[in-house]
Amino acid sequence: MPVEVVPFCSKYTQDCLQKIFEYAGCVAELRTLSGGQPFLTDNGNHIVNLFFKSDVGDLRAASDAIHRLPGVIEHGMFIGMATAVIVAGESGVTVKNKP
Question: Which of 8, 30, 49, 76 is spaced 20 to 30 A from 37 at the CA atom?
Fold first, then answer.
């Protein structure tokens, strides 16, 4: 999951993100370009990608924890925004609508 962070404290924020979600086997990695330099957003910020080995649990609580960290601009969870989810798999496509 991508997290946009300010460059000034991106390493500190990256370490904090990994520590917060260590219970879910989280690995936090700075997104880089092929030459190794940090990828920059349109606003000049860095992206830290979070990789989870297991479920993080309550997504609203996870979202709040991420937003409370110094240096975090935004994350890739779109909580409460979607009215439907389309899931494709080996057995076909399923559409799940919000009740």
Answer: 76
